[in-house]
Amino acid sequence: MSTPFQHLAEGSSSRGETVPHEGLIASVDAYVKEYMSHYDASHDYNHIQRVLRVALLILEKERARASDQQPNAVNYDETLVTLGALLHDVGDRKYLLPGQDPTTLVRDVLLERGCPDGLADKVQDLVLHVSFSTEKKDPQTTLTKISAIPELALVQDADRLDAIGAVGIARCFTFGGAKNRGDGLDGSIDHFKEKLELLEGMMKTRTGREMARERTERLKIFRNWWESENEGLS
């Protein structure tokens, strides 16, 4: 079975160019597959694969929008997008193990696999700014970081797209059950309005906004069904 990064691991980019670090990408993918095997199904390796696939799709579409009439179009680094997507949940505070430092974990993983210092630093910086909660605490810092690392926008959008739509609904209930928070199914439904339905307005790319619009509508339809079927229950 092919993987979303196979074209990179084989050494060619979506533009037909040779991609450096193909061995690094393959090694990181193997590490992430093992690392995520300890997570519940809301944040497993399949989630990583989907985020990577969508991040590369956004990259492809955003590049296609660029033309000779857009001399200032962003020149995204495909290797950085790939590594950021693969590693964006490594060091996630929801699952962090005792003794792990989320501010250096990704960098250490990359350096152990021969990654250049500068690239390792940039990937670590990127993954520290992917999360919804980080942006909500300080939106301006996130925007400033995207100006410095534009690839962050693609990984952010891809991660948030996986939180909405049909897959997002399944992940929301899976996470609620895994954490056994005590608020039952209603707690997961509340999460729709508290967070998930807000994500469309936080997309950074045009492609992300277009994809989020449809997936958010699916969330709202499902929530309406839920409320209709539970009407009158206390």
TrEMBL record:
Q: Which domain of life is it from?
A: Eukaryota
Where is there biased composition of kind Polar residues? 1-16
Domain spans labelled HD/PDEase: 40-173
Read off the CDD domains from this record. Answer: HDc
Q: Which SUPFAM superfamilies match?
A: HD-domain/PDEase-like (SSF109604)
Listed Gene3D superfamilies: 1.10.3210.50
Pfam families noted in UniProt: HD (PF01966)
> Where does the record place the region Disordered?
1-20
PANTHER family xref list: HD_PDEASE DOMAIN-CONTAINING PROTEIN, SUPERFAMILY HYDROLASE, PUTATIVE (AFU_ORTHOLOGUE AFUA_1G03035)-RELATED
- For this entry, the protein name equals HD/PDEase domain-containing protein
Instruction: Give the organism the record lists.
Output: Cytospora leucostoma
Q: What is the lineage of its organism?
A: Eukaryota, Fungi, Dikarya, Ascomycota, Pezizomycotina
